[in-house]
Fold each of these.
Amino acid sequence: MKLTTRGRYGLRAVLDLAVNSGDEAVALSQIADRQGISMNYLEQLIAKLKKSGIVNGIRGAQGGYILAMPADEISVGDILRALEGDLSPVDCSELNEGDTPCSSADICVTKYVWKRISDSINDTVDGIMLSDLVDESKKVLAEAGNMQDDQPKQIC
Amino acid sequence: MKLTTRGRYGLRAVLDLAVNSGDEAVALSQIADRQGISMNYLEQLIAKLKKSGIVNGIRGAQGGYILAMPADEISVGDILRALEGDLSPVDCSELNEGDTPCSSADICVTKYVWKRISDSINDTVDGIMLSDLVDESKKVLAEAGNMQDDQPKQIC
DNA sequence: ATTTAATCCTAGTGATTTAATAGGAATTAA
DNA sequence: TTAATTCCTATTAAATCACTAGGATTAAAT
């Protein structure tokens, strides 16, 4: 029941992009440096975000990435699902409509458990918008600015 | 973000035990047969449940397993945590008190996301008692009894 | 036009975890 | 004494994870 580094790094990368994006595109190398994530690996993560329509890539020199939508229209759920795939705790056709029907659905009791876990996870992450994290980040960075500079800059 | 077969099989096994236990202990071979799970593998799962005080083992001939407590005092959360370990989506000292403190806690924004996911999962599974599943199971089995016998008996 | 800075794309790899299988030791009712 | 059962540990094939590596493509800047 753990997220992989895809979800952890990827969410941090999108947040970094949202916080540090002005008018211009942000190069992935900058995000990788700030976040301490390998550039090559981050490329693979951002590819998933691009495929899901969360960011747009701009090729060529001075290129980079920008959010495809305003930060208050992107939920943490959108981001995590893009990176990790479906967030439900089991692969079960009763939870995911696309799947082929389960022949045991009639006598399956545990599916109620999986459905409730799945709904609680998705409701939670869909209720947090990227803009909420941007706001929180600005608050935290303002406080950090008042601290000594020998504070560790490493990130979870 | 998926449960492993430990959690899936293990929850089914405990439910099977709860449904099929009278006064006497239930042999693991019976549970394994009914649930279509390898006996050897199930042994390893039930060992975790025993260690967590959810079931008691009775050795020797005519031995088996019994619930260590009434089914309405055992939550699905207790069972899943025994089988899967901590259910939080990341290993983060801000979520798990035992861990060594995180040096980045002050500037970490995503920890709020992880905490909210963790709480929602744990609140959900702690709110479902084994007895709830037993009740549901009896209802489902009563209905299944009215159906033709050529229905699939395979389980999710 | 050339260079440079960047995204885009795919293949490979060591480490770890998963989902078992296997087999023997210990215990106890019959 | 036998048979049925839990208890315990080692091994393993397959999958997944978390990268690394390197080349192709694109477009701004010179």
Amino acid sequence: MSGPRFQPVRTVRAYERIVEQIEHAVESGELRPGERLPSERDLMVQFSVSRSTVREALRVLQARGMVRSRPGDPHGAEVLPFTPAALHKSMTTLARVDELSLAELVQFRMVLEGAAYLLAARLHTPSQLAEMDAAIARMRAAEGEEEFGAADVDFHDAVARASGNKLIQICSDVVRSIVVNLIADKIRAPELRARSIAHHEEALAAVRAGDGPLAARLARQALSDFYSPYLPEGALGVLLEEAAGEEAAGGA
Amino acid sequence: MSGPRFQPVRTVRAYERIVEQIEHAVESGELRPGERLPSERDLMVQFSVSRSTVREALRVLQARGMVRSRPGDPHGAEVLPFTPAALHKSMTTLARVDELSLAELVQFRMVLEGAAYLLAARLHTPSQLAEMDAAIARMRAAEGEEEFGAADVDFHDAVARASGNKLIQICSDVVRSIVVNLIADKIRAPELRARSIAHHEEALAAVRAGDGPLAARLARQALSDFYSPYLPEGALGVLLEEAAGEEAAGGA
DNA sequence: GCATATTTGTCCGTATGTATC
DNA sequence: CGATACATACGGACAAATATG
């Protein structure tokens, strides 16, 4: 029947093998963030390739956010700590190619923030609660739109961190910034601030009381209220109703 | 007080400007997937840079999965349709650097699949239900581990597509493959198949009945049952309990 | 503060294997 | 099959930028 399944022989480029080796060194912890790579000339000797090939490999690694090289730096390229920049980049292009509608992004935010609140209500530490308090205070005291937005971001980041799940935290941050960038001009109306602050206080109270489901419901509702003017009719309704449905099912 | 806030002047590399221009052309739809870029020699004329610079730019674009170039291709580099490959790559490195624990990944799967089921129960089409039926049938008829796994993936992908949210679909796929790769050896025990099939049938019945909350609960429970042997005690409990808490709160 | 050496960024020319017509 | 054009890879070169003594 099926004989020995051979692997297709892909002709692997020289620069790719360099990328693989350096990438592996970083992922295995052999190269730690902050450490330096050898200079390009050293690398071309170690890999026995030309400098062009070394440079193409470095450009790929740089595009992935793993290293950074500056002209004239005698220490060689620097190994960077992981940042979700690459994740952010690929999600942004995914959204830009118009593969993603604003409704889908907001819906995803509702899912992520709901989960974050659910977890944060149970796992939060006192210092994280203090951070949320401080963020709300800064929202209240904010003068410019920028200041208000920054405090808002800090609040949500504190909640995401309190969830104890770095993936939720990173994805929430990425999706939020994408959504905000997409409709940055239209929103941030000062007349919405009071309502926004009130919402954050309610949600925080629910977190403090350990009522994750309530906090999640408030978050979904707030997102729906805020973004529905910019979305087609009923784009978010399903998630709201179904979340409510979860409760009804439990009551039965 | 605060004078005019100037932008820090970053010396932008030549290859970066090329990347920006081509990237913009793709994102704006000026260059569509399947179309070809000019040859490297044409590009070095159009941008008035050297060949090396053009190549470094192409390597970056290739790393982002936007183009593909083959030696000898007279048509030039091909513009690729968007694939979540870049997303997959960055999430994988995020997990590999051990920034992410297996518990966090599984937890994230619980969140995503729960949301997918919630939406799919309301938005599914008849053809998508048929796909899920077919996938379960193939799971039942599967002989090898590989076949079973492929059918399993197809089922979950059908659910994710039925959610109508491409971001949920893509992220679910990415996180699932990462988790599976992390513990590929240990699992897939044949004795678990019957139970797995039974679970899928239950979840599909819930979807067909339009009971999203039930389907979501089943999915979370199945993930917890399946992965808890490989996780520290109580790593997933919070999410299960809190999801149950959503119901209790609704009953009150 | 300054001069120097090193490194990166960029350019040019060339050779080689390959895909298409 | 042959001719052509292409990508891959090599090596040498110069200017700008940077760190070091």
Amino acid sequence: MNTPLDKVDWALLDALQEDARLSYNELSRRVHVSAPTVAQRVRRLEAAGVIQGYHARVDPTAAGRPVIALVRMKCYGARCITVHPELLADCPEVMEVVRLTGDICSVVKVAAPTIRALEQLLERLSRYGETSSAMVLSTPIDWRPVAPPTE
Amino acid sequence: MNTPLDKVDWALLDALQEDARLSYNELSRRVHVSAPTVAQRVRRLEAAGVIQGYHARVDPTAAGRPVIALVRMKCYGARCITVHPELLADCPEVMEVVRLTGDICSVVKVAAPTIRALEQLLERLSRYGETSSAMVLSTPIDWRPVAPPTE
DNA sequence: GATGAAAATCGCCATCG
DNA sequence: CGATGGCGATTTTCATC
């Protein structure tokens, strides 16, 4: 079902991206739409896959994983981790994997407790392809909400 | 205040990373700790900066921004966007900026509505440094919770 | 940190515009 | 398709142990 998102949908998405814990009543006040309508809209957005989940954002450093890195992968053909992400199911250090165009197969974002743990993960990743890693010094922009496409 | 996270803290972090909309009562049931204690713990985690926010995760493609890319930047000295992220305040396409060690200054994650919009953003970014971009074909691992560091 | 209760809030159903 | 009203259930918080 591909009915485009209207003004109310985007107001709800804005609010819930900013604070996922807002109640339907509170959303109703902010968006100036009745609470039952809010609940219906939000459930529709969830069912349509527009909203994929609600998550607390945890600071990896404060949580004991201060070693952040980006690992560029050039996988060996069929063992490409982008087609077998389940290979990394038991690697809690792996936060994100994106598959790319170009000579870099994928980029893996990693959050490890220690340099040593990062080293071990790189060894593991090197089974699947050539790795090239860079440490994350800081995150000037950590997170941004998805904004309505202005057309 | 740097008191390390205990078992209860991690149970709460796990639950709230998985579903940020759980009530304190529901958390109380899952973590087997009384509701007032849950509320107190969660507020402490928020105040300590361990929990940085609660966000709905929105699928950029479903929300009208299907053109995702990673842009590697080699900034021109002082104009480096990692030290002046406010230069990108009015670029809703920019989702994330990480500063890196190595010859790549930073990587910028972008979600644009169209190829044309991506092109325009690249023009803008090229004012600050050399850009090298790769399209995101897919995201085999989109998101992972921060897990307790096993030591 | 647990308990218990009180006040406020929330979510949902049926109904109506 | 959205708004209103009201009910019951849930939640949050306070004081106390």
Amino acid sequence: MELGHTDVTGTVQEGAREGNHNPKRCDAINSVLNRVGDKWSVLLVMSLAQGPCRFNELKRRVDGISQRMLTLTLRGLERDGLVKRTVYATIPPRVDYELTPLGHSLREPIEALGHWAFDHYECIVAARAEFDAKQ
Amino acid sequence: MELGHTDVTGTVQEGAREGNHNPKRCDAINSVLNRVGDKWSVLLVMSLAQGPCRFNELKRRVDGISQRMLTLTLRGLERDGLVKRTVYATIPPRVDYELTPLGHSLREPIEALGHWAFDHYECIVAARAEFDAKQ
DNA sequence: CAGAATCCGACGAGATACTG
DNA sequence: CAGTATCTCGTCGGATTCTG
């Protein structure tokens, strides 16, 4: 995954030339992109925006997610330090998930994306219709 | 894909209650998320940031992309109105791709994401190491 | 040069069943 | 309730080959 002399932050690398890029920056972009690219991750982060939530409550909120994907996605978010998992040793068991400060900080760029989506949706739909009409 | 009373723009819906969400907003979020979630799309948008570019030049810039995916991704971006395709009837043929104003506007939220990624990368790597150590 | 078409393998993700 | 463990099927995407 190399972009020549440009990266996804939009900054142009100083001494950039053919084959000379910033591998660390590339890794950073990639891992975050993979996380944000994952639709369940984004949905979960936004579902956890207002506060802690239990497993099954999350399952209800994020309609359509399977138990398996909910578990896997939460694990991934926890591993990345975006979500904190708290187990209460009660019967029946209770597990709360909540955003860490890092998780909260991710909301900003995600919401920026959400706003862009909403603001330009009509535009995109129109473009699609026009494109399809030509085929 | 429903979020109960929250959506990815972070705004809380006015009269939101169980099962009452904004389907149009959901569609908008989804289609944009799918596009941004697609790693090649993001990479291509950023590769086209500085100006028009030919097919094979793009293939060289976005290292690792297959011809097939380059074609398909460019088609998708063109269909969404993010990229403009210009064919020059020369021999050999020449096709230029460039961002539309809409495509350029998408750079902002993408770059915001890129900056977040870079700024918090160390943090994420550390979290992962800690998480993995506990297993 | 800029694709279109075909083949095919790997992996993502749903459904289902079981457990502490 | 909050998971884990399989199994399976669909599609995504890479490699290869062919064309105007």
